[in-house]
């Protein structure tokens, strides 16, 4: 089956969705003999609930995942078992720290007022074409960087952006290649594996500077301030409580914070890019959001913007920023769909396909309809996470979900209130085969003031 898959790489996500639909939501992919590329693909909500929630302990990400994501080292994204537990619990305390939330709101507000609005203002006056995806990536990188390291990168770090994109694409292709092949390519430094090595050097350089200056600050301040950024928090981690954390080891701090930084930058910028792309094709949805902002906007309570929330949820259903997840059973098992899975085998859950299944979402699954998220009484409809898996489900649910939604709403409201975008005609809007759903050549638009 590998040649069929490789042939369809340019339209991988749509192809994999069609295959799921034709195979009743679950199918076994067979690669060449002994290549180690056999995988079970499933988007059956019963199987998802079984693996991610009710039998969570039997479904770690597995040793192969750790190899594929080796660039993230001991960060939470690739961790399993006891280390994951320590990272999750300590991360939970950080993400629920009042000062951390305050830092998110203050950094987003100042980045909006000082950088994004003046930038869009200039683009509208000079009538220049901008790449909205690139703008959101820089914006999210700067705010995520303030939150995670305490430093504002001032959108200058194109080097980090490129390194992140190469990493995410290389990790996608590693899923399809025998381990021995991509490890050899990495060793001799060819193709995309050469780029992942360069990316690793970029991350190491950047974190070496940040960690050493944060350590110096900690030593000179002498007293323990309440932590607000992730680096400072992990430098002061309580090892009596979290036994597997290593606050004095720079490499460990780099791994932990790099995962958080990537989780924060690329997901929200992907979600906003696809959201504005869909709005440009659905002017009625745009007018409804504008109307809601006019009548219900309260900067201290963005939850009141029910239709905006519905439109964001609907956009991420069709274009989930993290398009797939990977599991590997610790012991053999039988899934609720009846498929037998062996210990250490690979299981892939494709969120992109799940959001498009007619048997899960109805005949209009492919349509962009925020209304499907609104109840008759005007409230928000909640869907089980085994059906709406955009933020993952069970004990490994996304830790930044509430921060991400808050930040995306702040950005969306500011832009929608003040600007109109016109998408430059003739662009091909296709997702890149990657572990983050980006548009291959970005989203080129012109900007005008909304008067
Ligand atoms: C629209 C935005 C976002 C989406 C769609 C999203 C989605 C996800 C998904 C699907 C996972 C599971 C990944 C896996 O297990 O392989 C995840 C995990 C995670 N996310 Fe998010 N995320 C978003 C934003 C954020 C932000 C802004 C942060 C941090 C500030 C964040 C922090 C995390 C962390 C720490 C995990 C790991 C949780 C664990 O393994 O226990 N996410 N996210």
UniProtKB/TrEMBL annotation:
GO molecular function: metal ion binding; monooxygenase activity
Domain of life: Eukaryota
Alphabetical list of Pfam families matching this protein: p450
Alphabetic keyword roster: Heme, Iron, Metal-binding, Monooxygenase, Oxidoreductase
Cofactor: heme
PROSITE patterns given in the database record: CYTOCHROME_P450
Biological process (GO), any one: lipid metabolic process
Binding-site residues for heme, renumbered to this chain: 398
Similarity field: Belongs to the cytochrome P450 family.
Name of this protein: Cytochrome P450
Source organism per UniProt: Eruca vesicaria subsp. sativa
Species lineage: Eukaryota, Viridiplantae, Streptophyta, Embryophyta, Tracheophyta
């Amino acid at each position: 089956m590998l040649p069929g898959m490789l042939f369809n790489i340019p339209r991988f996500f749509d192809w994999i969705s069609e295959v799921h639909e034709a195979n009743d939501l679950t199918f076994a992919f067979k690669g060449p003999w002994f290549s180690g590329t056999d995988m079970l693909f499933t988007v059956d909500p019963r199987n998802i609930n079984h693996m991610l929630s009710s039998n969570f302990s039997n479904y770690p990400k597995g040793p192969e995942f750790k190899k594929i994501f080796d660039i993230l080292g001991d960060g939470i994204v690739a961790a399993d078992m006891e280390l994951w537990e320590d990272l999750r619990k300590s991360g939970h305390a950080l993400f629920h720290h009042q000062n951390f939330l305050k830092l998110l709101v203050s950094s987003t507000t100042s980045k909006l007022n000082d950088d994004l609005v003046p930038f869009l203002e200039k683009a509208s006056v000079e009538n220049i074409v901008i790449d909205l995806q690139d703008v959101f990536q820089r914006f999210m990188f700067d705010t995520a960087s303030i939150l995670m390291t305490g430093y504002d990168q001032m959108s200058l770090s194109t080097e980090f952006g490129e390194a992140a994109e190469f990493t995410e694409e290389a990790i996608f292709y590693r899923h399809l290649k025998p381990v021995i092949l991509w490890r050899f390519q990495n060793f001799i430094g060819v193709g995309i594996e050469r780029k992942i090595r360069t990316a690793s050097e970029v991350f190491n350089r950047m974190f070496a500077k940040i960690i050493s200056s944060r350590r110096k600050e900690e030593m000179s301040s002498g007293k323990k301030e309440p932590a607000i950024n992730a680096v400072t928090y992990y430098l002061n981690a309580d090892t009596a409580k979290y036994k597997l954390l290593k606050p004095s080891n720079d490499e460990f701090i780099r791994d932990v914070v790099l995962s958080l930084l990537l989780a924060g930058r690329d997901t929200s910028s992907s979600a906003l890019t696809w959201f504005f792309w869909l709005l440009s094709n659905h002017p009625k949805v745009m007018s409804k959001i504008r109307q809601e902002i006019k009548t219900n906007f309260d900067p201290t309570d963005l939850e009141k913007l029910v239709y905006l929330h519905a439109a964001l949820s609907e956009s991420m259903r069709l274009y989930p920023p993290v398009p797939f997840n990977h599991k590997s059973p610790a012991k053999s098992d039988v899934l609720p769909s009846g498929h037998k899975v062996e210990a250490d085998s690979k299981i892939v859950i494709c969120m992109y396909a799940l959001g498009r299944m007619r048997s899960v979402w109805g005949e209009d699954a492919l349509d962009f309809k925020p209304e499907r998220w609104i109840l008759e009484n005007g409230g928000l409809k909640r869907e089980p996470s085994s059906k709406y898996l955009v933020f993952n489900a069970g004990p490994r649910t996304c830790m930044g979900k509430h921060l991400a939604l808050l930040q995306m709403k702040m950005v969306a409201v500011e832009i929608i209130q003040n600007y109109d975008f016109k998408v430059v005609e003739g662009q091909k809007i296709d997702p890149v085969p990657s572990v983050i759903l980006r548009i291959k050549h970005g989203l080129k638009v012109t900007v005008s003031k909304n008067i």
